[in-house]
């Protein structure tokens, strides 16, 4: 079994390659069972969550990702999420590779965010606001710049020094980036608002969102987590990555309970968008919302790219 560390996992997953690969994967058939979710409680420790996400396809690959989520890690100076990924031969069950699940998860999540925006953000969207400074948040300018003409990036975080440090990092990477000190003002001027946090209380309020804006919610993935209030869905066309979001996303559950969204008003999934079964953005003034909780198909697609890249290299 081959082992791919963080660098080897990252190398084949540039967004110019990964976003189109996800689009092709969502347009085809694959087997993606519901994820297994278990609460982890141990004596004298913060509560955590373990997710187990399998997927397989006719291409001959089977993958299983295990994710440990411990939000309290930020107080320890540790990432809140740790993941591992194992790729198998789907015909024999033989293990092929162990990959860095953190890198795989971050890059496929940012790529799925960009894929959603490729259908739902205005074609001329240029001003991106990122909420959060974690591993996924750091990748969002590059991901969105692969599908939209992003030339201005703002970042907000509940710890201002974190936002300032990330903005400086992006400037070093060539982006026109600044830290936002006033969240409301930053949301009001953004073409795309992308939230990549582990928030349990709403950060973005619907009355702040400008006509024609696109709200991208990719951080929360349990009923207890939420990044946007119920008014964000009022008058907007809402899309999800998979139908699982309707059971797992705190924002959607709140909006449905609050009457600002009905389940049958959700316009479609990423698969439906990629297959042309539903329309994406239909006008420059409409507001769109994309809510993602993550799909094992995205992990399998990214892992397959890593494996195929390695196999194509000279021995």
TrEMBL record:
<protein>
    <submittedName>
        <fullName>Ornithine cyclodeaminase family protein</fullName>
    </submittedName>
</protein>
<dbReference type="InterPro" id="IPR036291">
    <property type="entry name" value="NAD(P)-bd_dom_sf"/>
</dbReference>
<dbReference type="InterPro" id="IPR023401">
    <property type="entry name" value="ODC_N"/>
</dbReference>
<dbReference type="InterPro" id="IPR003462">
    <property type="entry name" value="ODC_Mu_crystall"/>
</dbReference>
<dbReference type="Pfam" id="PF02423">
    <property type="entry name" value="OCD_Mu_crystall"/>
</dbReference>
